[in-house]
Design a protein that fits this description.
With 206 residues, the protein is α+β, with helices and mostly antiparallel strands. 53% of the residues lie in helices and 17% in strands. It has eight helices and five strands, in the order H-H-H-E-E-H-H-H-H-E-E-H-E. A hairpin with a 2-residue loop joins strand 3 and strand 4. Helix 1 packs across helix 2. The longest helix has 19 residues. It is globular, with a radius of gyration of 21 Å.
Length: 206
Amino acid sequence: MAQITGEMVKELRERTGAGMLDCKKALEATGGNMEKAVEELRKKGLAAAVKRSGRIATEGVIEAYVHGDGRIGVLVEVNCETDFVAKTEDFRHLARDLAMQVAAARPEYVGREAVPAEVVARELDIYRAAARNEGKPEPVVERIAQGRLEKFYQEVCLLEQPFIKDPGKKVKDVIMESVARLGENITVRRFVRFERGEGLGENTPA
């Protein structure tokens, strides 16, 4: 078995945010393989994060973000369980990233469960009609409609959107990673996005 040095433990801790003992155990379990140790800790961390997701989060911050010389403004409420975590740099950074996501990607809802049933029904009707107009056989029309509905969720729901800083992840995955690092449930309660001149018939420059 490879010798586990203090430098290896320190590097793994810096990469994952896990505790020193957990890092040492992960390195020992993977024979000193750094990448496998990262994967091992990530699996354990995210598994624990899923358990934490049911806990009530009432602390947190309302993050404000202004973009484009005052052209776009965002307020987003991000909640956690304790005031201690709410004041950490990691949590504040997450809230900032979420506000920037709202500014850039223009979501309409926090998650798919927030989309009104009538909106979902309308979209499905449109997708079914489009599939039939494309000459798709009836047995596959519903499957096509459901697939397009998933794409709709990824466009309009914040948690389902590709993360602007790493499109290989969804926003909800980034939040779960923070839950794993910080050890508390984290939720996005609500957000609002303003764009100068919006709704006034004004042509806003891109």
